[in-house]
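Continuing the batch. This is chain 6 of the set; chains 1 through 5 are on the previous pages. Same settings as before, nothing changed between runs. Recording input and output for traceability.
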Amino acid sequence: MTNDSGQWPTRAVPRPRNSDGGAVSAILGALPDDEWTVFEDVALRGRRTPVQVAVGPQGIFVIESRRPRPFSRDELCSAGVRQDLVVRATRAAASVNARTGLVEAKHVTPVVCYFGREVAPVVAGDVVVCSSRNLLAVMTARPTILDDGRRQLVALDLDTSIGTPARRPVVRKRRRR
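Output for chain 6:
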């Protein structure tokens, strides 16, 4: 596949599998900038797909976005949520929590968000399973646990360990050779 100049790209463009992080990022973009800090495409050790991390008054949310898989084992069934999905989301939240010591582990919430599938919010273990339509309600309906100063401190702490948040413009200088 060629680019706009008609040349072949010089490197592969990584794309997450089985997820729709772009749509979830657009949904997270509706959160107020003065209350929420969103980190997009956070790569965690041991994971192939990136997650989004949102820091707000209700705590830290580690969001894994997923599309329903039509021809494989269903992750949601009448018996509940598959255990491997819950374990993977819990590990992602624990990994983010390990990068900051400013918030108790109970205030770091793992979320599995399905895009393109209606799912009523369900709690499986410590993991919240929801759809893209009710993601914001799940995040903002909880009581406030971080005041402005502490929330900013947590966001700065995470910024040093996982990278620049998506909402802050990144200015990169080119090196001359």
